[in-house]
Protein: D-lactate dehydrogenase (cytochrome)
Organism: Azorhizobium caulinodans
Amino acid sequence: MMAQAVSNIRRPRARKTGPLRREEDMSAQARIDGVPIGAPSLDIIMARLAAIVGDRASAAPGVRADHGRSEAYHAARPPDVVVFPETTAEVQAIVNLCRELDLPLVPFGAGTSLEGNAAALHGGVCLDMGRMNQMLEIHAEDMDVRVQPGITRKQLNAQLRDTGLFFPIDPGADASIGGMTSTRASGTMAVRYGTMKDNVLALEVVLADGRAIRTARRAKKSAAGYDLTRLFVGAEGTLGVITEITLKLHPQPEAISSAVCAFPDLKAAVDTAIGVIQSGVPVARIELLDAVMMRGMNLHSRLGLPEVPHLFFEFHGSSAYVTEQAETAQAIAADNGGQGFQWAVTPEERTRLWHARDNTLYAGLALRPGAKAMITDVCVPISRLADCLVDTAADLVECGLVAPVVGHVGDGNFHLLVLIDPQDPEELARAKAFNERLVRRAIALDGTCTGEHGIGMGKMDFLALELGEAVDAMRLLKGALDPHGILNPGKIFKPHPPTQGSAP
Amino acid sequence: MMAQAVSNIRRPRARKTGPLRREEDMSAQARIDGVPIGAPSLDIIMARLAAIVGDRASAAPGVRADHGRSEAYHAARPPDVVVFPETTAEVQAIVNLCRELDLPLVPFGAGTSLEGNAAALHGGVCLDMGRMNQMLEIHAEDMDVRVQPGITRKQLNAQLRDTGLFFPIDPGADASIGGMTSTRASGTMAVRYGTMKDNVLALEVVLADGRAIRTARRAKKSAAGYDLTRLFVGAEGTLGVITEITLKLHPQPEAISSAVCAFPDLKAAVDTAIGVIQSGVPVARIELLDAVMMRGMNLHSRLGLPEVPHLFFEFHGSSAYVTEQAETAQAIAADNGGQGFQWAVTPEERTRLWHARDNTLYAGLALRPGAKAMITDVCVPISRLADCLVDTAADLVECGLVAPVVGHVGDGNFHLLVLIDPQDPEELARAKAFNERLVRRAIALDGTCTGEHGIGMGKMDFLALELGEAVDAMRLLKGALDPHGILNPGKIFKPHPPTQGSAP
């Protein structure tokens, strides 16, 4: 390999002068073996990485490109180098190297995140956790499992099949458990089983100073000190690199049944969802799909359902209890004008239904071949959901965008897949303006700009709008745990002082 | 009031030189109106407090004493002054005053904590939140409520009675919601409804710099930045002062039934609990009481039950589902030798049963009138629980202590009420040594030294034993959010560098 200088491997000046960098640390930066450098050459970096991981580091353009793009609309931001660690000790050595060389370090899971969460905004080293994908230890009696971060949720559930247990969090994509932890993922079953914050018992994390810590032991609950586990869940790799995750598991339900129900309008569907939740029925999934999305799903998955708003339900429990839950839900749906409550009882029918649901991204894209989707992610208190949806539908008509809706309606979280040509600057700008109005609408209703996708690079401006000076507290935590700012820099918030509550 | 100097109002030298204090801040300390002082006189402090809260501040010995003692065995540690704020703005002004005068500030709820969590170890100002006890806003459709921290759980549930909703976390004592939040409390219903970390949606917190932040909005879930909510839950007032709490509520169950069942030994009872949890029955409570505790309960509550290990059950749900759950549990109990499954179906019977359970502290003390209880709090993975209990029972016999057991067995959390004469140094030392062996046993089984009481002043030495270098990460967070170390100093961990994994 040529001893070329790597222009983007040094982070831009803006990051270096941010408050996350302490002046007294500057003298310790940018040295190799004690010799100060300007921009370390790629050769030096590769040689240092080879000493840690052998040939499991690559600067090949194809590998870099694979780690810079996502399924979202964001422009690709490839790293300079991709490294594939296999052990926590290797991760520690890589973190130490990046700190020494002042290189950005971006942890990377399955690449399914939607807000550019793992984009290498400042170049540097991408830490692909894909080879750390083992299930390390299962405790069936305690219903927990310890895994490496690179295992995907489908791989995990395949390995759990014979234990009588399963891991319920289902964000649609076959994401890695590490990525799901880092973005505080949730998805269709969160209404029953909670989000990642509720299903991670403990973590092993490599801190920016190279030490590996364990955030908690395996007890089901603890009041021992600060909740470090939940601090790293959702931190998007900006506070440490997650190297092990202990997850709660749940008993595979004795019986499962699913159903679909058509509604005359969105409000009737939302009122049904509110009624079901308030009735105390522990519905396992309750998904809203609007008429436009149903058209896309008919196109993509040949569902053959009427193109009006629908709820998809799933119920888990004993046979008798599943029947009781479903009858309660059906009665509430009927009270709200729901029609044609159709059951999917066999595993094949259920699989077809939820496979179609998991593929709503492609169903949406089927409505406009060649488009990309800007996927919105607001979440509001459920009492405000109908208002938020109706106002948003009117806004869509006004601004002339096509955007099918799919929602985790039991949690008040919904996505619009705003179909755009990302090469068309006017359309992109129009979509961004629409999303900003949506976020402001959600926040005005006491909601959040992101229910489950995280802030990444896409929603940084909205965070201060949502949480005001609380973002300063986050900055203080970042400065304490990553004083050199090497961990996934440029994500969640900008390092400069906050624009308190100002417009994004 | 005389212009007396207050000897203990300045914190001891050891705290001032700890790493939580930054040298560059020293010059800003200990000044009033720009004039440096040695130890501010009580008169000056009272005058400054009066300017904020009028006559709602007291240095009367009785008031101080009331805020220094607890139900636990720890020696009383009264504050110098007790102040009773009524608004967030007053709390902000008090925090600013304490920072200016370098005074410790200790938030105080109902005084029911068990590890000296609100003891004024270094004197200073006790912030009694009892006058901030309002329910501010209820959203029945969203099943959430915003309250002030001083409201107790019983006050809250009394106000919720007509809404069809309730707040399930029940630590036994009528604790304040702020205190329960700060200690990450849980109790008998955590097995079904989770702990405080699972039931707090958002907080308003006054930071050490005097700013009030809101940690989250009211959406049921969010992936917007670091999980500040859960950072303050369980921080025991060391990172900020909680001034508002938004809680999740739950539907009042349509039907409730309770039952008691006797077992031949502890292991049979624990195996029943494991079986019930694994069966997927969402048991609302499942409490273990050993033979010694049953004797105490018969003495104190005249339960008239056989003095052998028992499980107390409660089931919530629809009538049909409650019956199904109870039948499943009864069958599992019978498989494990459980006898005399007795139902408490009427509200009166249930109340009598759970009132007796809530009063196990007094039941334990009834076994040795005049004694105090050192209440242990380990929590282990449920598969290790029988081993931990059996070994602990043998240890008790060996060291000659009397200690009835009550356990949240579905979570692997159990308490021994070690009955001691706190005036007898030998007995106190013997009890402390027993507790240390218990904690080491629990940690060796991958458990925690505290399931729900917190670290406070009583378990600081165990925290490093349990979490090793993770405690350093906690110290970094404390330093970032409370650089002057004014908030509940001397709790959770000692400010000096950790003794990594060393013996307590």
User: Anything to note?
Assistant: The mean pLDDT of chain A is 90. Chain A touches chain B through 94 residues (CB under 8 Å). The longest helix of chain A spans residues 425-444. The CA atoms of residues 461 and 504 of chain A lie 5 Å apart.
